[in-house]
Design a protein that fits this description.
Length: about 700
């Protein structure tokens, strides 16, 4: 009878243990990555009152089973559902990571490695990736500085926010490519400046520059010239000007064997020969007044005056003194004075059409007398009568005197005219300036030093020269400008219009080559070692009709998807993400991504054999298998990591409450064993009464 009492006590203890397990599961229903536990029962030792006996053939008696009385129950095992995946809980925190699979994160307290499924991580003040709850460092693999890839080695703390990772280094541009269509009928292709295209490059210090290139026709349907025009800094200032150089080729060259380009301009010299002044490197051409003064040839009085015209003021400056000079540009005013004698026959014909009265010895027009008797009156009336001949020009100081025969009239006048650039010299390549050069005797119409002249500045430059040819039979001379171009020949297939080569046969690319240094005009040495040569791929461009419009585009970087060689400025860290394989990658505002490390995981032959260490941690045991210190890539066994989510507890409340009910009933039943046995003992004691 005493055995039943102790069986009940054993049952109570065992059910209490089970209740403790259930309570712990329910208490951790919201614990990150908690793995629920389950307890199983075993029966306790048995007391054998009679052993089993076998059958006896000699006596004919059968066998008897053993007679055993159990002594209650005990805890058989407490197992953990450690391989059962918990649900995902979104947190949108990039440092929260959930493992999918049977692996474990490896964390360290500085002296010992632990294992956990709790991926609620953060970054501490030293830049280490740590557990948010304990500060234990997350262990993983580092980046090999030579290869830039992960080096699988003994796990170590992942320091993702160290100083080296806050910025990405700049990189010089080394590649570019040309795409689009070159339409040979585009007007810009055949202009002096060509079709201009630009693209951005970086030097090794991360500074940005704009390369300006131009595309020119060279008189062939299939061949064109590509030339380097300029390189400008981020503010748009040419490096030639910035460094005080003479030309862009001191900085970089885009050279090739291009035939020299010549420009020939013909000048009508009216019988005069252009002269060249080697001291000032200028050509001078003498012009007639009618070539440079607007309306001069339309003024009948000026034409009739012939040589008897004196230039009085140039742009308001008196030039009547001997040897006076002045400069006048288009649109400014020149005052000329004329003097001529008109006979009776001339005055009575076109364009004057005056009438002479022999009775009064006077001229009249439209019935109005022109000769008024007094000199002052004559001047006024003659100026009015002649005004229609000046086409609205400003006329002043008109005087009229009688000639020797009484019918001739000696007329003097001043007229203001506007200087203009002669059409023969407009839009030329040499930059014209109009000058007046006074003679030794300004009043002498035969003084040939009194001239209007054009002065052409023809200073030779780098690769530019000028030549003056003899006067031709038609009275014109020619000045030829020769330019030696430093570009590359761009050639297309005549049949298809597709790219053929750049520079020479077989080349798909040409190189923009930077000089290591340059010498400024002041003698200063300019270091250009921060630049790298840029290889430009031309193979994608085509020579096709496109409505007289080129769609050429120069783009930095290679033309494949990697866009390598594009160059970049120094980059500021803008984000860090953890990939499915545990690789930690930083992103920078210059477009660069950088591998910072990889979270390694541990796997065990018997994960259920791990020992719980509290705080969501596990320790390896003899039955779980040992950690090799290196770990594994989670994707090697088909697992993965997901950032921005955490693994929830895998406790099933419905199962726990159901088990709680059966445990409660079991506890109640075992308590009845004790009370019933107590009643039996009471009856036994009552026998003495």
């Amino acid at each position: 009878m005493m055995r039943s009492l102790f069986s009940g006590v054993a049952g109570l203890k065992t059910h209490q243990t089970r209740m403790d397990v259930i309570g712990n599961n329910i208490a951790n229903v919201n614990t990150t990555a908690y793995k629920s536990q389950n307890m199983v029962f075993n029966d306790l030792l048995y007391q054998t009152t009679q052993a089993a006996s076998g059958a006896n053939a000699a006596t004919g008696r059968g066998g008897v089973n053993p007679r055993q009385i159990g002594l209650g129950s005990k805890t058989g095992a407490i197992s953990t559902a450690i391989t059962q995946q918990g649900s995902a809980q979104s947190t949108n925190n990039p440092w929260d990571v959930m493992i999918e699979g049977d692996s474990f994160f490896v964390v360290s307290d500085g002296s010992q490695n632990f294992f956990t499924r709790d991926g609620s991580f953060t970054v501490d003040g030293a830049g280490n990736l740590v557990m948010a709850s304990l500060g234990y460092t997350v262990m993983g693999w580092q980046v090999d500085p030579e290869t830039g890839d992960i080096r699988s080695d003994v796990v170590s703390a992942l320091q993702v926010m160290n100083t080296n990772n806050l910025t990405a280094p700049p990189e010089a541009t080394t590649k570019a490519y040309l795409s689009g269509i070159l339409d040979k009928t585009d007007p810009t292709i055949n202009s002096d400046s060509g079709a201009i295209r630009t693209f951005q490059i970086f030097d090794s210090q991360g500074y940005a520059y704009t390369v300006k290139m131009s595309f020119h026709g060279i008189g062939s349907d299939d061949e064109f010239r590509v030339e380097l025009d300029d390189i400008m800094d981020a503010t748009g200032v040419s490096l030639v000007k910035k460094y005080g150089l003479s030309n862009i080729n001191q900085i970089a060259t885009f050279g090739g064997d291009i035939p020299p380009k010549t420009t020939t301009t013909y000048y009508p010299l009216s019988g005069s020969v252009a002269t060249y002044d080697s001291a000032t490197q200028t050509y001078s051409v003498t012009l007639a007044n009618g070539d440079v003064l607007k309306g001069y040839n339309d003024n009948a009085l000026l034409v009739a005056a012939g040589k008897n015209v004196t230039i009085k003021t140039v742009n308001g400056t008196d030039v009547t003194a001997a040897g006076a000079t002045a400069q006048v540009t288009a649109g400014q005013k020149v005052v000329v004075g004329g003097s001529l004698t008109l006979t009776k026959e001339q005055l009575q014909s076109e364009p004057y059409n005056f009438i002479f009265s022999s009775k009064t010895n006077q001229y009249e027009k439209d019935g109005v007398a022109i000769d008024q008797g007094t000199e002052a009156a004559n001047n006024t009336s003659w100026q009015n009568a002649l005004s229609s001949l000046f086409n609205g020009q400003t006329v002043s100081n008109v005087t009229v005197k009688n000639g020797d025969n009484g019918t001739d009239r000696i007329i003097t006048f001043d007229v203001e005219l506007e200087a203009e650039q002669d059409a023969n010299y407009a839009n030329n390549a040499f930059g014209t300036i109009l000058h007046y050069k006074g003679g030794a005797n300004p009043t002498d119409p035969d003084d040939n030093a009194k001239i209007l002249e054009y002065v052409f500045s023809c200073k030779p430059g780098d690769g530019i020269s000028y030549t003056l040819s003899d006067v031709a039979s038609d009275g014109s001379a020619q000045i030829t400008k020769t330019e030696t171009s430093s570009g590359q020949r761009l050639v297309f297939d005549h049949e298809t219009g597709f790219f053929s080569y750049i520079g020479s046969q077989g080349n798909e690319s040409a190189t923009l080559t930077f000089n290591p240094s340059a010498s400024s005009l002041s003698g200063e040495l300019i270091d250009l070692s921060q630049f790298s040569n840029v290889e430009i791929d031309f193979s994608s461009v085509k020579n096709l009709g496109n409505g007289k419009k080129c769609t050429l585009e120069l783009t930095p970087g290679s033309k494949d998807s990697s866009a390598s060689g594009k160059g970049r400025k120094i980059g500021e860290l803008i984000g860090i993400e953890i990939g499915q394989d545990g690789r930690i990658t930083a992103s920078y505002d210059n477009g660069l991504t950088k591998l910072l490390g990889q979270i390694a995981v541990a796997e065990f032959a018997n994960a259920a054999g791990l020992s719980k260490a509290g705080n969501n941690l596990y320790s390896a045991t003899q039955n779980s298998g040992e950690f090799d210190g290196v770990g594994k890539d989670i994707t090697a066994s088909g697992g993965s990591m997901t950032s921005g989510v955490l693994e929830m507890s895998n406790v099933d409340l419905s199962s726990e409450f159901t088990t709680m009910i059966t445990t409660q009933r079991g506890f109640q039943a075992n308590s009845r064993i004790i009370t019933t046995s107590d009643t039996l003992l009471e009856e036994l004691v009552n026998l003495k009464r």
